[in-house]
Amino acid sequence: MRLAVFCLMIAITIPSLQSCTYSGQTTISTVISGATLFDGTGAEAVENSILVIVDNRIECVGSDEDCPVPDGAEVVDASGKYITLGLVDAHMHFFQTGFFDSRPDAMDITDTYPFAEIAAYQEQNPERYYDTYVCSGITAVYDVGGMTWSIDLEEAAESNPMAPHVAAAGPLLTPVPGAPFDLPSDRVLVQLDSEETGVKMVQYVSALGSTGVKFWQLDEDNPEYMGYVEAAAEEIERQENQMIAHATTLAQAKAALRNGAKLLVHSVSDVEVDDEFIELALENETIYNPTIIVDDGYLKAYLAAAGMEPLSVTDARGCVDDRTLELINSADQFSEHPQFNGEFKSYLERGSDPQRMYDSDFFVRMNLRKVHEAGIPIVVGTDAGNPGTLHGISIYDEMEAMQEAGISADDLIVAATRNGAMAMQRLDDFGTLEAGKFANLIILDDNPSEDISNMRSLSEVMIKGNFYNQ
Ligand SMILES: [Zn+2]
150: CA distance to ligand 1 center in Å? Predict the structure, then answer.
């Protein structure tokens, strides 16, 4: 009786949503019908699909025979459209703004933008990026390195119905001494200078609830340092956490894999990966995130700051927030910055030659194909927040770069959804469109399996059962 009354009240107070009974439970349901649906498992698309959503979860997905439409459900006709799971950006950083104000190590503009103020703003206002991500069709993000507060976002975002799911690693272990973007009270980089430092750091971030512990560069030829890494890696295992590594050379990547790395967040870019690398990665069940576009992003941000070429922002849905746009659009205020002396400027001119950029990515593209063909799972991760790689919208560029490197659109749909959830250790909750999982999905006008660029034809986003309204 009580349920019936509750049911009625919802129907009256929220006219757009209707209450109903499904599987014996009284609750709100939405049905999306008629679309061609990719469930993220790599299975063949379901044409003319029915998707039943009850509260924030998927109740049923399949054909109209599999999933009868519950009485009183709100039915959204998506005939002629395409549905995939909401995208997962498996590599981003909440503390970074997309420009040099959050990376004084790359260009010091702290006279104009004091880093302490920028860092405080980033901590206090993560919602602007929640919005940008969901607007861009991204319903889960993995922050693989930041200050300790980034770990708090996991819970905060989970309980916010319009925020993407968040996983976060927190501060990184590194052989290099403290960076200019550390604060006295919180830091991004922790210098791994003893076994004890590593073990305590792993215990601390694990107790905070971190998803992963990341190593930023490995000093693989230094046995003393590698001893510290080994001790930290053993503690990661004891804490049932996972090791993440930023490793851009084959030697670094193999050193990380020998210590059990589960996620490699940059490409091996110096040489072709070898059989030993592949065997180690398969044995560990390591996930590979190529992170292709971020270098190009830096170059574009420098060109914009030098006043040589404005940073173009492709954002048809208007997802990028005003503060970011202002920052990007006023980049050339730094054109007289001492960093842009003659030598650096001519480096920028040479670097922006498209053929040169293409050539420098040769091993990145080759290794991505090789890793993928060997059966190592790949994910889509942009490194957003770094200068020139904007939060949210950059995922389209990254997927297109991966497609250009030779990954099929069908495989990219899985990489950008299921595999990303797997990297975040959230596959039980989302990552595929299956009964019982969160209703995180996007509706597209054009077929993403024909060309991954069609992900840009986004028309609707549903996050945790709610349609996102701009
Ligand atoms: Zn990164």
Answer: 13
